[in-house]
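Pair request: fold both.
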Amino acid sequence: MKLVKIIKTGLIFSVLFNTLLAHANGEAPIKILVGFAAGGVTDIVARLFADKLRVEFNEPVIVENKPGAGSRLANQALKASPPDGKTFLISPNSGPVFLDILYPRSVLGYDLLTDLTPVAALTTYPLGMVVQRSMGVNNAREYVAWAKAHPKEAVFGSAGAGSHTHFAGMKLAQAAQINLQVVPYRGNGLINIDLLGGQLPAAIMAASDFMKHKDDPSLRIIGIFGERRSPLAPDVPTFTEQGIKATAGDAWIGMWTSAKAPQAEIDRMQRALQKILAEPEFKQKLESKLTMTPFFRSAADMKKLQRAELDMWRPVIKQSGFSPDQ
């Protein structure tokens, strides 16, 4: 929380200082777009990298927030950016990937595979499920039994409809052959309020949120959706090891740029990001403050990862019957 307050307090000063510096040097600053409001987790990650890149390049680096339309506005701005390799996007994988599945090109205003290009994957973190202890549920199998016995109460909270946590719940429902209904919230803050107040029986959340509840006497973390246990939550079993093949993969944050950007600028940024992520102090900050781990993947490997996720999630989303117009 202290880190969040520091970043929020310094937001205006940072933007003004680096913009003035760019003008003074007669050069355009490196711009990092974020499709969410200032102060959120993605914004904080972007500002941590911006601070390090500023030193690495000895150039001004600014973060520009373009919240709205599920991050489509930021993606559209990236496509429309000048072809000089000065504009980048930092986003969770669910932003570009799920939007590409949910919306036609005419609505998106860009083509993920031809207008945007990966630069590097940056961080990763697990998704987990939290339930009320009052339900008498101690693990994933018991939760499935409870959901079958209480179909009208089998709902879970998710930070937004069409999000990674939403479709992780759909994966669980399909794997366990149960009916689950999502209750979309505008952010995890409201989910936490209803969980702690007992109004919400369950929620699927990112590690930075579900780990807040690990010692809460009224809540229990029953499983994570990764293929293996996470070092960030080593005591929490996966759904798979509990006999339920509800693997939704870990969430991750990456950087994209315009497909028009010069390859030399993409390579330069990729090398800088790899160097930053290898720093022990930076790794410790990600783990202790944001419950994330470094996850450097080259542009080529990130492109493969992106395609694999598109292939994995298309049938899940289609089978769920979810429409963004719901």
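--- second member of the pair ---
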Amino acid sequence: MTSSPSYGEATEHRLNFNGYGYLVRTAVAPDTGTGPELTTEPLILLGGSSQDRFSWLRYEQRLLPHTTVVTLELPGYGEADPLPVEHGMDFLADTVQHTARTLSLGRVNVFGACFGASIALRLAQRHPESVARLMLGGTARTTSPEYREASGRWRTMAEDRDFDALAQDMVKQFMAPDGHGFVRRKAAVARLMRQRFATLTERELAMDMVHHERLLTHPWSVPEPDVTAPVLVFTGEFDTITPPPIGRSVAKELGGRFTTIKESDHLVQIERDTELADLIGHFFTDQPLDKLPYLNPVESFVREAAGTLPSMA
């Protein structure tokens, strides 16, 4: 166990699911003498492919007054065991469910961003009894043709050891182009992304390539079964890799709510971390979202009967 005055106490677990080891970090609020007055169920944060269990430390600090915060390095990512490409989002969702049961978390709130959103959605579909609320960021219905084309380029660049070009291309794909709209901290985040992609170890590079193959091999989302938990879908207002109309269509399909965060793109969790942490806290504690100054209008959808299109509430 490790602790710090900023983040409370955190415990590291190494778990195993169906023969694959992975890591889990659980952080709990500091004990003030009377015990933390938590206001919602434990929160599982599932980030994108390039994020690890330490990527959410700033979020821990802001969310611990509300709940226990759980971050993972699932099989195939970070320091976890490599995961063959034949295992897709269903397997990873079941791994998250295994985590909740092993750690006796009970019902949980689930946040998923980018690739993590696909896993989070599948978790809510396969294990509805375990999910209290579901928040999806930068999500999609299918892997786009543009991403498929980019993945082929990235594999070629990796094989040619052209890491600088690989880093530049990945940043170009994940961030809004110049002139598309004002994005906060864009230059700093671009430098951070280029540094991350340009300094991959051999192990990290191999895992990244398998990750891209996983996205090309397995469906991003499936239509059934229905999600029973309350849902919020969001993205940056200038997201070009999973644009707002796609997120809105996901919210319609799930009968949830949809919004965009101002002055951000697909990397909103880095560009506007303070605001996103605030939004997470509001949603998972059932507070109103309509007057948050960093949001564009929040749209609400009601799931219609089978065979009809959802309508706005």
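Observation on the second member. Confidence is low (pLDDT under 50) at residues 1-7, 32-36, 305-313.
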